[in-house]
Model the fold of this input.
Amino acid sequence: MSKPLDQTDCEIIEVLEADGRMSLADIGKQVGLSGPAVGERLRNLREQGYIAGFGAKINLRALGYTIQALVRIKPRSGQLHAVERMIEEQPRFLSCDRVTGDDCYVTRLAIADVAELDDILLPFHERAETHTSIVKSSIFESRLPPLRPVK
Done:
């Protein structure tokens, strides 16, 4: 069982979310701990499952993926598992959520231009209905909800 987060743990997570490459000493300065103490807390936060891993934020535009699309996918009867496999096997899908409502999946797709949509989505049409919206801009990327210590 995970130990509850305290205020300092919440502050460390928030600092890391803003800049995952910050040194332990710099994190410590912001939260009032020594670098080694921050390192110990980070180790504990990872072991307890609060921190799943560390990574880089990649600029998709710089890699040539200038457009993102939100695609809602509703598998036809008996095609749920086949459609899910198709989504998993198509590397242009950045994310996929199973949802309630008329559609079963809401996905995010990275493409270089709108013409690529046909190449990617046509194979789905035998097994599912798709509804696509082009992302014009993002107000913000994925972010943490407010963190509160658990008492």
